[in-house]
């Protein structure tokens, strides 16, 4: 990357300036990309614990890459995104002193630290394709390694009973162990699910391999790589990646394609009903999860049903809490005092609405959408990220914020507001 500056990328008046094209990343740029992606896959559970707050390596790499981008002179500020984040921070800061719940300034600070980088991306200039290609190539390469690790892990843990390979978390010293709660087994079979050893849970392995499949399909389409990544996805025994992949291709690419989306969704539902009726033991490893939505103590209930109880409790407190939330950091503090008889997970939509209200949720969602769909990433990748961010527990996970930020680093060449995917990653 060269050291030049430009007006904000998303500013309505920011033209495409005649910069020299970037034909390749510098050595420092390549090193930062590798460090960031490797830290997400292999170092996310290693942290320096400051009191009760674990500073994970992926958070450090996120900060390092952002600092490198800004100091190199290649960063462009998105003014609309800055306005949205300032409004959100102002809302959160205003709410905390008047909250009846136990709120936290540190939680608001963490949210800021994760989404301030979303205000910056590469300066819009011609021929940024090599930068996007390099980032994708590194991600797919590292994801292929973790998929292979997951396959070996699945065999060794379940067949050879090598329980020490279940998760790196259990062998790390307390001094550098990150915080977290983990699900390891299939509730209906007792099989220990693969998580690639270094990732937190099998759902993480499912999501990262599914994303790699999508990126590889949009770029080089190497059969061996797709097979390896697909095997890693299946080894996770988790449906998270499959759901996100379905959303990537089924969600409409424009308003004109909404009827097609409805038809495809109906067709997919019909196919799933037929497959479910086959009562196949293999397919039931995934279809069996559907019954969890009504069963307390299951993953699906904790992720989707139980958080609705928290949202209802928030809305019952009055219109002020409904629109402005209960205060940053109040979700789990109020959950602890509620003494529920079942687990409540931390989905993005529930935590945001509970802590920042409907207004705060809209502000952060708008910032997220602006980042996605003004990037050069294919629309399918944007849809994948949107579904994952809305449905899964990603809102305060530094690793996922880093990966989403990194893969949307290159702006769209079609205009200030983009329309993600204008610069398609055509198959080579």
Automatic annotation (TrEMBL):
This protein's UniProt keywords: Membrane, Transmembrane, Transmembrane helix
Keyword Transit peptide: no
Stretches that traverse the bilayer: 31-50, 62-91, 103-122, 134-156, 223-251, 258-278, 353-372, 384-407
Keyword Transmembrane: yes
Protein name, per record: Ligase
Species per Swiss-Prot/TrEMBL record: Bradyrhizobium sp. LLZ17
Taxonomic lineage of the native organism: Bacteria, Pseudomonadati, Pseudomonadota, Alphaproteobacteria, Hyphomicrobiales
């Amino acid at each position: 990357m060269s050291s030049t500056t430009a007006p904000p990328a998303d500013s309505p008046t920011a033209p495409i300036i005649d910069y020299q094209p970037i034909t390749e990343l510098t050595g420092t740029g390549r090193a930062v990309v590798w460090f960031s992606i490797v830290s997400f896959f292999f170092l996310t559970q290693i942290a320096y614990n400051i009191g009760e707050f674990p500073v994970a390596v992926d958070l450090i790499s996120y900060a390092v890459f952002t600092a490198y981008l800004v100091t190199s002179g290649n960063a462009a500020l998105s003014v609309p995104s800055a306005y949205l984040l300032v409004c959100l921070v102002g809302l959160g800061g205003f709410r905390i002193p008047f909250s009846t719940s136990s709120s936290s300034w540190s939680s608001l600070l963490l949210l800021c630290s994760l989404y301030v980088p979303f205000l910056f991306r590469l300066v819009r200039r011609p021929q940024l394709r090599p930068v996007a290609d390099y980032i994708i190539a590194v991600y797919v390469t590292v994801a292929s390694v973790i998929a292979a690790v997951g396959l070996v892990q699945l065999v060794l843990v379940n067949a050879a009973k090598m329980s020490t390979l279940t998760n790196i978390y259990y062998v790390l010293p307390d001094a550098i162990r990150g915080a977290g709660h983990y699900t390891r087994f299939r509730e209906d079979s007792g099989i220990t699910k693969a998580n690639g050893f270094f990732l937190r849970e099998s759902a993480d392995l499912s999501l990262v391999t599914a994303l790699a499949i999508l990126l590889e399909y949009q770029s080089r389409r190497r059969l061996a790589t797709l097979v390896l990544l697909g095997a890693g996805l299946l080894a996770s025994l988790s449906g998270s990646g499959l759901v996100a992949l379905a959303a990537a291709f089924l969600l409409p690419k424009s308003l004109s394609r909404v009827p097609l989306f409805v038809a495809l969704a109906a067709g997919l539902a019909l196919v799933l009903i037929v497959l479910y009726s086959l009562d196949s033991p293999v397919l039931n490893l995934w279809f069996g999860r559907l019954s969890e939505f009504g069963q307390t103590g299951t993953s699906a209930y904790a992720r989707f049903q139980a958080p609705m109880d928290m949202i209802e409790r928030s809305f019952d407190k009055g219109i002020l809490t409904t629109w402005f939330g209960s205060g940053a950091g109040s979700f789990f503090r109020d959950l602890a005092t509620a003494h529920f008889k079942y687990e409540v997970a931390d989905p993005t939509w529930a935590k945001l609405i509970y802590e920042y209200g409907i207004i705060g949720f809209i502000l952060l969602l708008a910032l997220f959408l602006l980042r996605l769909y003004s990037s050069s990433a294919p629309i399918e990748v944007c849809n994948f990220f949107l579904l994952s961010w809305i449905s899964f527990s990603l809102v305060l996970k530094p690793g996922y914020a880093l990966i989403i930020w990194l893969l949307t680093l290159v702006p769209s060449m079609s205009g200030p507001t983009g329309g993600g995917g204008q610069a398609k990653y055509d198959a080579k």
